[in-house]
Amino acid sequence: MRKFLFQLSTSFNPLRWCLFAVTIALVAVVEVYGYINLSASVAITFSSFETAFVILSDPMALAYIFLPLYLFLVCGLATHAPFGTLALLRYKSRRQWLCHKWGLLVVYTALFFGGLFAMVFTIASQAFPYQAVWSSDFILLQVSLGQEVANFIHSPLQTIGMSLLGAGLLYLFVGAVAMVCGLMRNSEPLALAVALVLGLVTAGVCNYLLFPQRSLVVQSQQALVFGLLYLLLMALSMAMVGKVDLQFAKKG
Length: 252
Known about the structure:
Number of strands: 0
Oligomer: single chain
Distance between the termini: 26 Å
Largest sheet: none
Strand content: under 5%
Order of helices and strands: HHHHHHHHH
Helix content: over 70%
Radius of gyration: 20 Å
């Protein structure tokens, strides 16, 4: 555990996480003001949960704002080691070192989505009232946008949570691609570019074709698919880490 906490402390980049907080706050404020105007124009008062759900499940934001920001935070985990190859001496094997790297990716993904939900919901709560159930007007509006009525039979917190889990494991898979690219080529810019292109394509296919609905069942299917893909990439990296020439780059 101490080795893992050491990796967590040395790989944490305060400037990147500050940029994350500022960007999410800005996006949330702009989106909330937009929904204030929308609620006034259609005479519907959204709840804080409903507003957060719309922002966090917006395909454009998921693909073009949150995903690049996520990759900016997690890219470099595989290539960053403040003491170069000496960092490997703290571990019994390269595989143990790499297991901790994969664990860091999971922790950073959880922190990213936990912070994302907390900030969006907090800002939405400043403008809209708290309500523990979906309103009928909101459900009708979502149905007109292509969602199914059955998507809203569970509580807002459950629905938002599963939607974030589905998106989180998709992001985790894309982050895993960045990890593997970083190990193979030892280049953070290249890993970022490859993962970003793949992530944008994958997010578009999932949000518009494969998993467009936000029900618990559909989002759990998305989570299962990308969770398995993450494990597959992790297994492949374990098989190749013994043959990779680990020349660590400095933190970017």
